[in-house]
Specification:
The protein has three domains: 403 residues, Beta-lactamase (3-Layer(aba) Sandwich), CATH 3.40.710; 100 residues; 92 residues, Nuclear Transport Factor 2, Chain: A. The longest helix has 25 residues. Helix content is 31%, strand content 22%. The chain is α+β, with helices and mostly antiparallel strands and 643 residues long. β11 and β12 form a beta hairpin. The strands form five sheets. Strands 1, 2, 3, 8, 9, 10, 11, 12, 13 and 14 form a ten-stranded antiparallel sheet that branches. Strands 15-16-17-18 form a four-stranded antiparallel sheet. A four-stranded antiparallel sheet has the order 19-20-21-22, with helices on one face. This is Beta-lactamase family protein. It comes from Pendulispora brunnea. Keywords: Signal. InterPro entries: AmpC-like, Beta-lactam-related, Beta-lactam/transpept-like, Beta-lactam_class-A_AS.
């Protein structure tokens, strides 16, 4: 049940010993009602519908260009299933089309379903993630410890691939008809790759153990347990555990290259079916694009945290817990990767931009922080003949699934779809509702700027605030702001990053001021930190330098460059950088200044033919440029990978 990290979109199984359901102390079970996907608001829905022809073409072109026989694609937006289609053929020999309702083995994506069942049992108070897992599955206690000081393996370690069991994807993919007796025998004296709890290492065997724990604690066979605890509450009526559960000829046929030939244009053969036996909890689920989208929709519906009634198979808080990275992940110990001269890069240049990824494994899901998104959740799955990709921006209500019925295939349609939706304004940062005390801060600060009052300032700010600067110094700072900027007014809506911290901007007669504030702890919180950044209109020299730089981007001129830059500038290096920027962005013009101290540096937003850009210019006292830097526009809803 390979993770297929190489193909992931942004970088990418009856106890033999006596055992029965066992309760432990814990929170009471919460009855959860029937769950249904939410509905996307009318305006974003209309925006998305206008993109559908473009997306149809993107997916059809990708299927043809990648030479994969068939592909299934589905999208969730705003929690609603808005797109589900198939492209190409599910069965080449019989010319049967791939459809959104074509059953497909999702391999390791199964793991998150098993994790959901474990967390439901945990929430019901029936097990503990942090006690020795051999309490629930005794054969686990007979492994050979890697070191004398190795701790006992816990469920949390098993769920996060940090049990110390060795990576086993080639073995796990083809362990046909492996029984629990086989697994117990294998665990008896089994060698460990490392001590538990210290590092990530992908183990399908660990998930076989997790599946047996689900059986013992729930009192049901694993497949029945997950069917009742997950499939049925989500309305996944076209999901099961074996190809035999579906009508003959409807399941997608899986293909591979002959004799391991990975060239997609080379001749293909039908891959042999994989029967995983007791490793079913790691990779045996078969489902359709449309059914898996219901599961994805449930995951994104866990955001934001809120007061609404709970519904579905698991508490929203536990769904969010699944998605959080627990153990930093890496593919650098996979045998295939060890053939490389150096480890796989954590960052790379792509289309002239830096792409970086920080990943961690949660409970059956990978969590990533990237240059484009602060929180991306995914898992890929692979079995002989099949690849499944599932990716989510859960905080933004987006999710996507892709099925490919050739194990050699690769695709970037998830990242390309996200880019297009982002450009269309359909992946906006989630709105955070602040505490009333935080919501009142911008107005209170505005009152202090308009009419300072010591008592009002002391009421707004924590007493500890004035341990860092006296109230006299703070009063004078506000007076200076008024002298230098003139009359100011609140501009736009504040942006709150959580319930007790945020920022806002005021527009002034001369420039603008960006404020940021955070509340202190307590039942009646007041402001513990207040920071501000001042911006002034760019000077004439800064604007001239900006305009000249934009002109040089369009057409380099040695004489113009000599006039623009300071004498000690390395013009050959500057020319190379300008040429690279022009190749990526095309012809540009200045739209507006977005940041400036008014005298020495300014950042301009540029409108460009191919891709927007921000251009930062610094000048010396003579007005000559000392630095010119171009970068993609910064987004409030995404990390900034590089200056």
């Amino acid at each position: 049940m390979r993770t297929h990290a190489f193909f992931a979109s942004l970088f990418v199984f009856l106890g033999v010993a006596a055992g029965c359901s066992q309760s432990i102390s814990g929170p009471p079970a919460t009855p959860l009602g029937h769950w249904q996907p939410s509905k996307l608001a009318s305006d974003p829905r209309a925006k998305f519908e206008r993109l559908v022809p473009e997306l149809d073409k993107l997916f059809a072109d990708d299927q043809r260009a990648s030479h994969v026989p068939g592909m299934g694609v589905g999208i969730v937006l705003g929690g609603e299933i808005v797109y589900a289609k198939g492209f190409g053929l599910r069965d080449v020999e019989r010319k049967r089309p791939f459809e959104a309702d074509t059953p497909f083995p999702i391999a390791s994506v199964t793991k998150s379903f098993t994790a959901m069942a474990i967390l439901r049992l945990r929430d019901e108070g029936k097990l503990d993630l942090d006690v020795p897992a051999e309490r629930y599955y005794p054969p686990l206690g007979r492994i050979a410890r890697a070191t004398r000081d190795s701790p006992a393996i816990t469920l949390r370690m098993l769920l996060s691939h940090s049990s110390g069991m060795p990576e086993d994807n080639p073995w796990g993919d083809v362990t046909e008809h492996f029984t629990e007796q086989d697994m117990a025998k294998l665990l008896d004296g089994a060698a460990m790759s490392r001590a538990p709890g210290v590092a990530y290492e992908y183990s399908n065997l660990a998930w076989g153990v997790i599946g047996r724990i689900v059986e013992r604690v729930s009192g049901m066979p694993l497949r029945d347990a997950i069917r009742r605890m997950v499939f049925e509450p989500l309305g996944m009526t076209h999901t099961d555990w074996s190809p035999s559960a579906f009508a003959k000829g409807t399941v997608a046929v899986g293909y591979r290259g002959r004799d391991r030939n990975e060239d997609m244009t080379a001749s293909r053969e039908i891959a042999p079916p994989a029967e995983l036996g007791v490793l079913d909890s790691a990779g045996s689920i078969h489902t359709t694009v449309r059914d898996l989208l219901r599961y994805v929709s449930f995951h994104v519906s866990a955001w934001p945290a809120r007061d609404d009634a709970e519904s579905g198979p698991l508490r929203r808080s536990s769904v969010r817990e699944m998605q959080q990275g627990v153990r930093a992940s890496s593919s650098n110990e996979f045998v295939r990767v060890l053939t490389l001269r150096s480890p796989m890069p954590m960052a790379r240049l792509q289309d002239g931009h830096l792409k970086a990824d920080a990943g961690a494994y949660g409970f059956g899901l990978f969590s990533h922080r990237t240059c484009e998104e602060d929180f991306y959740v995914e898992h890929a799955g692979g079995l002989p003949g099949y690849i499944t990709l599932m990716g989510m921006l859960p905080q933004k209500g987006f999710g996507m699934v892709v099925f490919l019925n050739d194990e050699r295939a690769g695709t970037r349609v998830i990242s390309r779809t996200m880019n297009r939706l982002r450009e269309a304004g359909l992946l906006a940062a989630p709105r955070v509702e602040p505490l009333p005390a935080m919501a009142a801060v911008p107005g209170a600060v505005d009152q202090l700027m308009t009419n300072w009052n010591d008592a009002r300032a002391r009421d707004l700010l924590e007493p500890t605030f004035f341990r860092y600067q006296s109230i006299d110094a703070f009063r004078e700072r506000f007076a200076r702001l008024t002298r230098e900027h003139g009359t100011c007014r609140l501009e736009g809506e504040p942006r709150f990053v959580n319930r007790m911290r945020g920022r806002w901007q005021v527009a002034c007669e001369r420039g603008s001021i960006t404020f940021a504030a955070g509340l202190g702890p307590g039942s009646k919180p007041r402001v513990q930190a207040l920071e501000m950044r001042e911006d002034f209109p760019p000077s004439a020299a800064l604007r001239r330098a900006g305009e000249a730089s934009v002109e040089m981007l369009g057409r380099w001129d040695d004489n113009g460059a000599a006039a623009l830059f300071a004498k000690d500038a390395e013009l050959a290096r500057v020319k190379k950088a300008f040429t690279q920027l022009a190749a990526v962005h095309g012809k540009c013009s200045i739209e507006r200044a977005v940041e400036s101290d008014g005298a020495t540096h300014a950042t301009f937003a540029l409108t460009c033919a191919d891709a927007p850009m921000e251009l930062t210019v610094a000048v010396d006292p003579t007005g000559h440029a000392t630095e010119v830097t171009g970068r993609p526009p910064r987004s409030e809803g995404a990390p900034n990978c590089a200056e």
